[in-house]
Amino acid sequence: MDHPCRVALTERAARAGGAVALDSFRTDLAVETKSGKTDVVTAADRAAQDRVVSVLDGAVPEEPVVGEERVEPRSTDGASGARHDREGGPRKANGEARPVSGARSEPRAEGGVETVPETGSAWIVDPIDGTNNYVRGLRTWATSVAAVTDGEPVAAATVLPALGDAYVAGDNAVRLNDDPVTVSDRTDPETFTVVPTIWWGFDRRDEYAAILEGIVERFGDLRRVGCAQAVLARVADGSLDAAITNVETNPWDTVAGAHLVRQAGGVVTDIEGEPWHHEGRGLVASNGEAHETVLATAREAESR
């Protein structure tokens, strides 16, 4: 499959999964927990991922998929296997959610992998990034799909179905709803709006607090969005200037968005200042102006 076709497929798959998620948005969904009280999943996450995988299987059945939720085995006709039941159990009450095991990526019988392959082509899927927003009825959540070759992204699409926005990255270009966008041209850190992204566990809240303090001290404003893929897309379109985390990231939370930022003219590094890779430590994305100042904020969080 040539590059333009991969770009088109990322968009088609992301839009298809996003449409499934949107169908269940603001409905009476059961909410389950995965690794912790704030790490939640719904039947809509699984159904949306199933739809994305089905679209990918129809075009590139031989290429593996890395997904946030369990990737079901493929059937012999190339379609995705049995779908997850939408009946997820009791509705969340009083802030509590029902635990579920096995929610992270697991290998499927044909074509499924747990980690991003370092050779060959693969696809990385986040069916609903920002599930906490999703289950609260907040509109900032995303469905993202990235195509990678030899471990590096070559195409990406991030759709925000509840907001009607779709970002697609090709070669050195990003389009938002078919209009070209680029990172911001701001150069003065005191005019920057910066976002702490991903999530710091309860055992790392001192680092989270240090990141917040560093942003407030150095930059003009701060946002907390709750959806890493939306944050990175907004850095790519120039409405945000930078995003910071010093924690380990998952590829489904970051690869598509990092590709958007780079193709829109921005810079993405790890906290060592090296070109960002999905196995690197932390993520610092910016418009490329004052990147060292943004980077210093991430680094200093670990030394306070």
Topology:
Elements lengths: L2 H22 L6 E6 L2 E4 H17 L5 E3 L30 E2 L21 E9 L1 H5 L6 E8 L2 E9 L4 E5 L4 E3 L2 E3 L11 E4 L8 H14 L2 E2 L5 H9 L5 E7 L2 H13 L3 E3 L11 E6 L4 H10 L4
Parallel strand pairs: 1-4, 3-5, 11-12, 11-13
Antiparallel strand pairs: 1-2, 5-6, 6-7, 7-8, 8-9, 9-10, 13-15, 14-15
Describe this structure in words.
The protein folds into 2 domains: about 5-170, Fructose-1,6-Bisphosphatase, subunit A, domain 1 (Fructose-1,6-Bisphosphatase, Chain A, domain 1), CATH 3.30.540; about 190-300, D-Maltodextrin-Binding Protein, domain 2 (3-Layer(aba) Sandwich). The chain is about 30% helix and about 25% strand. The protein has 7 helices and 15 strands. The chain has about 300 residues and is α/β, with parallel strands linked by helices. The chain has a 7-stranded mixed beta sheet with strand order 3-5-6-7-8-9-10, with helices on both faces. Strands 12-11-13-15-14 form a 5-stranded mixed beta sheet, with helices on both faces. A 3-stranded mixed beta sheet has the order 2-1-4.
Structural classification: alpha/beta
Count of DSSP H/I helices: 7
Number of domains: 2
Mean pLDDT: 87
Low-confidence stretches: 75-111
Biggest sheet layout? 7 strands, mixed
Radius of gyration: 18 Å
Q: In percent, how helical is the residue content? A: 25-40%
CATH class identity of the largest domain = Alpha Beta
CATH architecture of the largest domain: 2-Layer Sandwich
H/E topology pattern: HEEHEEEHEEEEEEHEHEHEEH
Q: In total, how many beta strands?
A: 15
Strand line-up in the sheet with most strands: 3-5-6-7-8-9-10
What is the third-level CATH name, the topology of the largest domain?
Fructose-1,6-Bisphosphatase, Chain A, domain 1
Span of the ends, CA to CA: 49 Å
Report the principal-axis shape. globular
Strand content: 15-25%
